[in-house]
Write a structure and sequence with these properties.
By secondary structure, the protein is of the alpha+beta class. It has 43 helices and 59 strands. The strands form 15 sheets. A five-stranded mixed β-sheet has the order 42-43-44-45-49, covered by helices on one side. A four-stranded antiparallel β-sheet has the order 1-57-56-55, with no helix packed on it. Strand 6 and strand 7 form a beta hairpin. The chain is extended and about 150 Å long. About 15% of the residues have low confidence.
Length: about 1500
């Protein structure tokens, strides 16, 4: 099998989720336009030594539209199979060895958007389309099954590599679905998190979920519950991760066992030189993924500007990535990447191949993350090829994607060493020409008429000529200057100037030294030199002879003119071609036969190549122009227009031609013999060039976006193809009558020059430049050309030429039949075809009845003439004539106006009956009855825009009425916006606004009101407020806030923003309120925001939120204390239970000094609170904030905030030496902890703020202080807490309790016993429990600290507080008894009301009564023994006793005195000698006096007192 030619392929298709893939062993394929190109990678590619090991080895051709998906089979023994999907609706299975289709199916009814060959089932190909339908096709059994999991547009899908039935599907709206194809497409998981297109899905290469150290609580998303019920875990749903990349700029890792996301990776914005795209432009992002097989903890992704990132997934809390190709500048892609696919070569290298919008295919070494090689590609037609005469081997390629490629074809290290030039081009490059002497100087012409010069040896932008062609530039040529440019001195003018031929038919001469100057039209010189009076022909081609003495111009009429320098004297005219000349080339002068340099070859639209020998003419230099009508040689064989010619620089008389028949032909021109025919292109050839180095090597470009390098000796054919179809079309063409052909000749003479040449039409240009020329998306549309109309052959000399012309036309006609999209590249106006179609459409007659009556029999027509003559010449019409005229109404066209009106009325009625009211309206307009037309149309509801537009002709009032009627009609048709526009046209602004508002077009109504009404008009504010209230009701708070801002109600805007309740919304609302001057609202919202951030332990964010408002300086101090206290409490916890999610400030991590010292230190250093005045100001602000009392149900974080508020007041008062305020604040913090039941927090407050007891505060207060009562309460709670600490230490001594008790028994001999029940040992709400039962024996003894503490418990045995608490308990018991009596009374009334209702045997009622039965006897006894008057007496006496106590006793709470007595007596009974007898006696007396309630008697029994 002969090797494939070297190919510069088309660009891979854009915006496809999987249009490239690689098979094990080294075959890579990518979809480009309607084909798939195959690349051999690795040692078997047969590349030159030292060159990158890859080579394009073939093409899969068969689809008729863009290929949207490509995938290989990755099963052993099937590596030669692949599948493609296309916009033509088919899925094809290919054998890449034979490049043939194995089978195909057309199951999809809509555009296919995704394709994958299952990695676990060897014959399963899965495809999805834009309507959400998924088809599973089993190749071996030719069976299929379809699913419809979601009514959404599918963007990508990927089969699981671990479970053969699992399929992951990504949708356009961001949803990812995992389905089980074995269960009829049942949805296993719906993964929600992305909010834009899913571009890529990658399964983890390892099954199981042990490869990633993911925090289970990192993501708070709830697992998806399909169909409303929880799905039990099965082996299918277990153990695999899934990665998805989306247009929303995130990568998400999902757990299939839990059905939720476990990691989110946000793309970074990499600011690198020469690349990168603003991340806000989401349209320019494509996020594709690859999960390496041998690296399950790493993930490769694309980024904004063409970079590749290798993510490290081992550290879920750190988003760590490595950038590809960091050591080499410029190796990354310059634009977004669409596809990534891995490839393992035969020698074991792990490679990654990427396709990008920059039209490069790059190969990366996964070991070094460096780029191994780059395969360039073309994004448009290859219009022009040109080899540099100075830098031999440099081939310039003009491409339709707006870029010039310069290919170093002689590079040994890289077969595809291509540089791209795009600056200043901005259009299709249609012509190229190198400077004959100056290195790197390349002239280019473009589709929009631009001519410029590039220096390919530098990075400078090109020089652009200030003179543009009006149409496409078809040819460029360097030649000697002619007047007036040649009139200067030798140093004032260039030796060579640039000539350009454009589509408008003129040739311009540009000064390369001064392109900014005006270019010269050589037609003036030609006319003056040759004294031409007639119109010059339209030029289509220019070519200079190698010695620069003679110039040839090709024309649209097929003639070729030969001019001599310096004044362009016309030597001869060649009248051989009779169609537009596309190519003219002179034979080179360095051959073995110098006389051949006078040979000139030309090609045109008539498919025949003529070679003329001008030696005689050039040597004789005739005075008058000579006309040549006989060719030197005729080269026949092509079947379509010839677009390009090139003489071989290595042979004498050998020529290569490019043709629209899709082939390139090598000729021996001297013998008129075809030698070699190249048929590798899949489209029409546009250009050809012979290698200046290799005699056998030729380069050709075509409209298939390819440039091929091929060898003449490797071709199987010697002449162009001659099919049967061409012969049949030739016969058909010759059989057509000649007069019809001549009719079409006139328009062609007026066509722009070379409007039939091998470049592009204006239609093509507008399509391609109107939007991005995207491969696989708009490349076909952008590069399609209008098919050339058939042109007649002009008179010719030889019969052979006639035959070839006919064949050419026949082939072109056949192309129209076979493929309507394959249109001509030459330049016939695209309007001609639509005009022809319009001529075929016969317009509906305005007077159809009259017309039909004029086509009756001859007798009737004669009778019409007689009636008409009688009516015309009669002085008075009798009844018979009037009846005839009335019957023959169509004669009104030839009589008076009244009869004409009757005819119009009859015709109008006919139009209405046939359903064409618009024709009736036109007749009424002809009649002049515009008002009647409008009224009739309004009554029928048939007013139109055109009728209303002509209404002003009937008067202003009629116009107003018509507009109002049309607006009402539009309202009935639900076209409210259009109706409002018409009302605005008659200046009814308020009515238009009200119409839009009443139909909920608030946005449009506001736009109208804003544009047409005064800014202070109340209607505008009402619109804003109405729309804002509706948006607020629907939950669109941000837009509602904008409405309120528009209504200058910033307060409402801030309030509605805050309704969302999350931290971000609250912060925005606070900032908005601050900007609007709403200080109080801003402060409250900022505080709410800080409290929300407090719930997630975001201390930094909370402080930032509080910093938004100056009035919250005091709250910042509170939050600072709260942060330090939480940090202090957390440090006391074991490491395994600490929360890792807290975000602390740097200053919160210090540990110098006690808590109070750390707090005051941070206040001074961070918040600048160091003077008494500042402390006093903060204290004043905080004292105005009041919090409700804590209960046992108060959340711990809220409790901490309230406690820290009081502690902050205490510290600020201490800093200002206000000791009388320190004690109440500190006591309030202790009471908050006590009443909420948080004994531990209370003890922490004492240990942090009163580490040495209360003596320090007593000294500061003095005896006469007003805060003495509060201090006594604070001291009592301190002793209360210490009392329990002693009890605990006696129950279970440990290292932390050594200050209270010392053990004389070794630790290993201690055996703790079970303690009493928790309920039995807690008489009060906050009473703590002992940790274990007391040990037996005298193995424990109290420390001195404990003895001193027990002695100080006398302070707790307060007679007044015990009496007060007993009275308060009496009030509470009476109130409870009264409440119980009321409940019993209501229950008895309810039973009486339902006596005749449901049966009392109802098991539901028995069940309700059952739980209360054990408690009912005691309650009944209590209620029966106490009457209501007795309860009233008890309540009155108790309240009276409470009123007698002084306010100093009632103002501050005190620990439960009886509870303290019980604990002390319990300690004394369990550890004899621990409590002296005097204290025990005092405790017993208090219990006997005030402990008469049942609860205390039970506690006495429990504690054995």
């Amino acid at each position: 099998m002969k090797p494939e030619p070297l190919t510069l392929p088309p660009s891979p298709n854009w915006y496809c989720t999987r249009c490239s893939d690689a098979a094990p062993g080294g075959i890579f394929g990518f979809a480009a336009r309607t084909s798939v190109f195959l690349v051999r990678v690795g040692p078997s590619a047969g590349a030159n030594p030292g060159a990158p090991p890859f080579r394009v080895v073939g093409e899969l051709v068969g689809h008729t539209e863009r290929v949207s998906g490509f995938t290989f089979s990755h099963h052993p023994g099937q590596y030669n199979l692949c599948a493609t999907s296309s916009d033509d609706g088919t899925v094809k299975i290919w054998n890449i060895e034979t490049k043939a289709v194995v089978t195909e199916h057309s199951l999809h009814q809509h555009t296919i958007s995704a394709l994958h060959w299952s990695p676990t089932v060897k014959d399963l190909i899965v495809s999805g389309d834009e309507k959400g339908v998924v088809f599973c096709y089993w190749l071996n059994r030719n069976d299929s099954q379809h699913f419809f999991p979601e009514p959404r547009t599918i963007f990508c899908l990927t089969c699981s590599p671990h479970h053969e039935d699992l399929l992951a599907i990504g949708y356009k709206d961001g949803i990812v679905v995992i389905i089980d194809i074995s269960k009829k497409g049942e949805v296993i998981h719906r993964l929600r998190g992305h909010d834009d297109e899913i571009h890529s899905i990658a399964w983890c290469p390892l099954s199981g979920e042990d490869c990633l150290p993911v925090n289970q609580e990192e993501n708070s998303e709830e697992p998806d519950i399909p169909n409303g019920k929880l799905v039990a875990e099965t082996p299918i749903t277990k153990g695999c991760y899934l990665a998805t990349g989306s247009k929303d700029q995130t990568i998400r890792i999902w757990s299939c066992s839990r059905g939720r996301g476990i990691m989110v990776l946000k793309l970074p914005f990499l600011k690198r030189r020469g690349g990168g795209v603003d991340p806000a432009v989401k349209e320019r992002l494509w996020l594709t993924l690859h999960w390496p097989n041998n690296q399950p903890t790493q993930l490769v992704s694309s980024c904004f500007g063409g970079e590749l990132l290798l993510w490290d997934l081992t550290q879920s809390w750190r988003r760590k990535y490595t950038l590809f190709s960091t050591s080499t500048e410029g190796q990354n892609h310059s634009r977004i990447i669409f596809n990534l696919c891995p490839l393992k070569t035969e020698d074991g290298k792990q490679l990654l191949l990427s396709t990008s919008m920059d039209r490069d295919v790059k190969c990366w070494d996964m070991t070094t993350l460096e780029c191994c090689w780059t395969l360039p590609s073309l994004g448009g037609f290859a219009y022009s090829l040109a080899f540099s005469p100075v830098d031999v081997g440099c081939l310039a390629i003009g491409v339709g994607d707006g870029m010039i490629r310069v290919w170093n074809t002689l590079s040994i290290k890289n077969n595809y060493e291509v540089k791209s030039f795009w600056q200043g081009v901005k259009s299709k490059v249609t012509a190229l020409c190198w400077h004959p002497n100056k290195e790197g100087c390349l002239a280019f012409g473009t589709d929009d008429g631009k001519v410029g010069l590039y220096d390919t040896c530098s990075n400078k932008p090109p020089q652009i000529s200030s003179t543009y062609h009006k149409k496409t530039v078809y040819r460029l040529a360097w030649g000697p200057p002619v007047p007036p440019m040649s009139l200067g001195g030798e140093g004032d003018r260039p030796s060579l100037t640039l000539y350009s031929c454009g589509g408008e038919g003129i040739v311009l001469q540009h000064n390369p030294w001064k392109l900014s100057g005006e270019a010269f039209n050589i037609n003036k010189l030609v006319r003056d030199t040759n004294s031409i009076r007639y119109k010059l022909p339209v030029h289509t081609e220019i070519s200079w002879k190698g010695d620069g003495k003679v110039m040839a111009l090709g024309n649209e009429d097929g003639s070729i003119e030969i001019f001599q320098v310096p004044n362009l004297k016309l030597l001869c005219t060649i009248q051989q071609h009779h169609k537009l000349v596309n190519a003219i080339v002179w034979h080179h002068e360095h051959g073995s036969r110098p006389e051949l340099s006078c040979l000139i070859a030309s090609g045109s639209n008539n498919a025949v190549i003529y070679v003329h020998n001008l030696r005689t003419v050039l040597e004789s230099n005739p005075e008058s122009p000579v006309t040549i009508t006989e060719p030197f040689r005729t080269l026949s064989g092509h079947t379509a227009k010839v677009t390009s010619l090139a003489w071989s620089p290595h042979h004498d008389g050998r020529l290569v031609s490019a043709c629209y028949d899709g082939t390139a032909q090598v000729w021996d021109a001297l013998r008129e013999e075809p030698l070699f025919n190249f048929r590798g292109h899949q489209g029409r050839l546009l250009c050809v060039a012979w290698s200046p180095v290799d005699p056998e090597c030729i380069y050709s470009g075509a409209d298939d976006f390819c440039v091929y390098r091929w060898l003449t000796s490797m071709q199987d054919h010697s002449r162009p193809p001659q099919g049967k179809k061409c012969i049949e079309l030739e016969k058909k063409r010759l059989s057509q009558p000649k007069p019809k052909l001549k009719k079409k000749k006139k328009p062609t003479l007026r066509l722009p020059v070379k409007q039939d040449s091998s470049i592009v039409t204006e239609d093509e240009s507008s399509r391609e430049t109107s939007g991005p020329v995207e491969n696989g998306v708009s490349d076909q549309d952008g590069e399609e050309e209008a098919q050339e109309p058939e042109l007649p052959p002009s008179p010719v000399v030889s019969g052979e030429a006639v035959s070839c012309i006919a064949v050419s036309l026949g082939v072109e006609k056949s192309k129209v039949t076979v493929n309507s999209k394959a249109t001509s590249l030459k330049k016939e106006p695209p309007k001609e075809k639509p005009e022809a179609l319009l001529k075929k459409r016969k317009a509906r007659s305005m007077l159809p009845l009259s017309t039909s009556l004029d086509h009756r029999s001859k007798e009737e027509l004669h009778r019409d003439c007689l009636v008409l003559a009688t009516a015309t010449h009669a002085k008075e019409l009798n009844e018979d004539v009037s009846a005839d005229l009335e019957e023959r109404f169509h004669l009104g066209l030839f009589t008076d106006r009244a009869t004409l009106y009757r005819m119009m009325e009859t015709e109008g009625k006919g139009h209405l009956e046939s359903g064409h009211p618009e024709l009736f309206h036109q007749l009424m307009l002809w009649k002049g009855d515009l008002k009647g037309v409008l009224q009739a149309a309004a009554e029928r509801g048939e007013l139109t825009d055109s009728l209303v537009a002509v209404a002003p002709v009937a008067g202003y009032s009629v116009w107003l009425w018509a507009v109002e009627a049309f607006a009402k009609q539009l309202c009935f048709q639900d076209q409210y916006v259009k109706a409002a526009s018409y009302l605005l046209s008659i200046h009814k602004v308020y009515e238009a606004v009200e119409l839009l508002k009443s139909n909920h077009f608030y946005r449009e109504a506001i736009a109208v009101a804003k544009a047409r009404l005064r800014p202070e008009d109340p209607v505008l504010k009402d619109l804003y407020l109405s729309w804002g209230s509706i948006l607020e009701r629907d939950g669109h708070y941000a837009i509602a806030a904008k409405c309120y801002l528009g209504a200058t109600s910033a307060y409402d805007a801030a309030k509605v923003l805050a309704r969302k309740g999350d931290a971000a919304s609250l912060r925005t609302a606070a900032e908005l309120a601050s900007i609007a001057g709403e200080s109080e609202l801003a402060a409250s919202l900022a505080l709410r925001c800080a409290q929300e951030l407090l719930l997630v332990k975001n201390w930094v964010g909370a402080q930032e939120a509080l910093g938004l408002h100056e009035s919250l300086q005091g709250q910042r101090l509170v939050f600072c204390l709260l942060e330090l206290l939480c940090r202090h409490l957390e440090e006391k916890q074991p490491p395994e239970v600490r929360s890792p999610s807290s975000i602390y400030h740097q200053w919160a991590t210090g540990s110098e000094g006690n808590l109070v010292q750390r707090v005051t230190g941070v206040w001074r250093s961070t918040f600048s609170v160091d003077t008494p005045e500042q402390c006093r100001a903060a204290l004043k602000k905080l004292q105005n904030v009041k919090y409700p009392s804590a209960t046992s149900n108060t959340p711990f974080r809220q409790l901490l905030l309230h406690v820290c508020h009081d502690l902050t007041l205490a510290i600020l008062s201490q800093q200002t030496a206000s000791w009388e305020e320190v004690v109440p604040a500190l006591l309030q913090a202790v009471l908050q902890s006590y009443t909420s039941g948080n004994f531990t927090l209370m003890q922490e407050i004492y240990s942090a703020f009163l580490p040495s007891g209360c003596d320090y505060l007593r000294d500061k207060l003095g005896d006469l202080s007003l805060a003495t009562a509060a201090f006594k309460s604070l001291e009592a709670f301190f002793i209360y807490g210490q009392l329990y600490e002693v009890w605990w230490s006696l129950c279970g001594p440990g290292p932390e309790s050594s200050i209270w008790v010392k053990s004389t028994v070794p630790a290993e001999q201690r055996e703790p016993e079970d303690s009493a029940s928790a309920e039995d040992t807690e008489p009060g709400a906050a009473a703590p429990q002992p940790r274990s039962s007391p040990p037996s024996g005298p193995g424990l003894r109290l420390s001195g600290e404990s003895e001193r503490l027990l002695s100080s418990c006398r302070e707790l045995f307060s007679e007044r507080h015990a009496s007060l608490q007993a009275s308060q308990r009496t009030v509470a018991e009476v109130q409870e008894t009264l409440a119980e009596m009321i409940r019993q009374h209501q229950k008895s009334q309810l039973c009486k009301a339902t006596a005749n209702g449901p049966s009392t045997d109802d098991p539901g009622q028995e069940a309700e009564q059952a739980p209360s039965q054990p408690q009912s006897p005691s309650r009944e006894e209590r209620n029966a023994s106490v009457s209501l008057p007795e309860l009233t007496r008890r309540l009155t006496e108790a309240n009276k006793r409470i009123a007698e106590f002084p306010e100093s006793v009632k103002a501050w709470p005190f620990p439960d005195v009886l509870e303290c007595c019980l604990v002390l007596l319990h300690i004394g009974s369990q550890w004899p000698g621990a409590v002296n007898s005097e204290m025990q006696q005092q405790a017993e007396e208090l219990l006997q006096k005030y402990g008469h309630t049942r609860a205390y008697r039970r506690y006495c029994q429990t504690l054995h007192t």
